[in-house]
Amino acid sequence: MTDVTKPALASPRAFVSEDVIQVFYRLLAALVICVVLSLLSGSFLHLANILNVLRQASLMFFIASGLTLVVLTAGLDLSVGANVAISACLAGTVIHQTGSPTLGVLTGLVAGGVIGLLNGVMVTALRIPSFIATYGMLWVLNGLTYWYMAGGIVHGFPPGFRQIGSGYLFGLPTPVYLLGAFLAIGTIFAQRTVWGQQIYAIGANPVAARLSGIPVTRRLIMVYVVSGIMAGLASIIFLARLNSAEADIGESLTLPAIAAVLIGGTSLFGGVGTMFGTFVGALILTLVLNGMNLLQVNANWQPLVTGVIVVLAVWLDMKMRRRT
Amino acid sequence: MRRSIYTALTLLASGAMATTAYADGETIAVFTKNQTNPFFQAVRVGADNAAKTLNAKTLHYIPTKPDSIPEQLSQIEDVVVKKPDAIVFTPVDYKAMVPGVEKINGANIPVVNITDRSAGGKFVSFVGADDYSLGLETARFLLKKLGGKGNIVIIEGVKGSLTNVDRVRGFNDALKENPGAKLIASQPGNYQRLQALQVMENLIQSNPQIDGVLAANDAMAMGAIEALDGANVKAQVIGINGTKEAVDAIKSGKLLASGDYNGFLQGCVGTTIAIRTLRKQPVVSEIVLKPTVVTKDNYQPYDSSVESRSCPTWDEALKLGGK
Lengths: 324, 323
Prior knowledge:
The complex is a heterodimer. By secondary structure, chain A is mainly alpha-helical. Chain A is built from 14 helices and four strands. In chain A, strands 1-4 form a two-stranded antiparallel sheet. In chain A, strands 2-3 form a two-stranded antiparallel sheet. The N terminus of chain A is likely disordered. Chain B has two domains: 169 residues, Rossmann fold, CATH 3.40.50.2300; 130 residues, Rossmann fold (3-Layer(aba) Sandwich). A six-stranded parallel beta sheet of chain B has the order 2-1-3-4-5-11, with helices on both faces. The interface between A and B is large, with 46 and 42 residues.
């Protein structure tokens, strides 16, 4: 029995060397983009723009960080965007009706968590493949949000609440602090706790993980709940940054978040990847958009440029890794 | 086009001959693009309002996946079997839905085209707003406010969508009339407020002086305003659609103006024409609403929910831009 579990548990343990090298190359890709952009645009390398990029990357990172844990277990959560939309609409309505931002924040987080729990139950107890379960959830949530909002927009929130998304603390935007905090928590959780290591083990070999006594079902449910709560957090940041929400805000969030996870080096087959890699993935995607805006790339060409750079970044990374 | 005028003429002729004895309670199937855009919600409320006033019923067909071509096609197949008395139709795509319209024509159900003009098929008439002149007039209003000069940013909607192409063309033509104004960037926001916010945040980095922002819809205008506020840049912003959120922002002075795309009126008039056709009353081949720019001076009529508004009478509707 121990023979079976050893490789599963051993590979994440060795992350210090292998994963750090992986992340290093991805960081290098991000740096190459930065160097190119700073040569092309004089305003790129300003502190204000760097903070601007970090603030923009934070929303995507919140969604992608929870998703990273799901992907580490070889699962997928396609409902994150729809989750952000419904959580934002619910939280916004609660703030409007009660006047309490605290209740609103709680609503957003709880709504996100409950949706994650339902995903987790579908994947474990009902044994529905995560792709299908969360895809179904995406539609259910869209339907509920459309019905609930009826084409309306919830907008206008108290200034105190808006500080979470658009405020500054000692010269740094608030979301950047949250980004740093969740990056640290996520990294420590995934790499330095037993639960985190169990998640890697489940992704690497679920059968071995179960046989070695890891409570697979509970861990899987936890992973989906965390993904849901992070979507809930993203919904709060969204509300606070944009001062409003409507039913269709989520659609453009899911695929970039999945892309950030994959560009960050997390394998769709599970067991391999890091939180910091996902952060770099979100950073690369944000940098590309920032650069195209600064350089005023024609709107027609922007999707094409994004696609080419994403594919190039991953290809270069894979090539370099094979060489080492 | 000629065909629909011909239809209208025959209807006019038959209308003159018919007596006023018509049956109430017709069913009008109303096709809209999605459940998410407040604009189409306003269309549906307008359609319901007109139907209620005229003692008819509406049946709404909305793709569950926003703007889904296959879904609207299958809804058309469904409706051809169910045979409502008439159809009020917004194509999710003005070209791709032509075969769908031909199916409706084949089933001999009278159909009124609203919002986006279909590239083909036979319609009783067309009711819509003119995106080009809305873009032009709203941009003109902003440029006049700026004295015809300044650094201008355009935030575009979804690439390739009919509304976006025409609105942006209107913006650009207004800029051409004001050689003192300089277009410093034209970037995509895909009609999404988050994307518009980020585009604006990025543009502020490279252009400290921005005087005016022309956004192709209200959600993007509101996103741009958040970015400008965050960076303490004072610029005038306009949007298009005349949503309740935009009207609130105009009232508080955050938004300069919004071009009124008036979905409510389009729903009202389209449905009224469908019902009048069934009752053999005269209709017109086309009503293109004249562009109205909602500003601080005229926002009052828009400062109410669409549910509390009432449809115009037929004579009033004709004055809105009938041909």
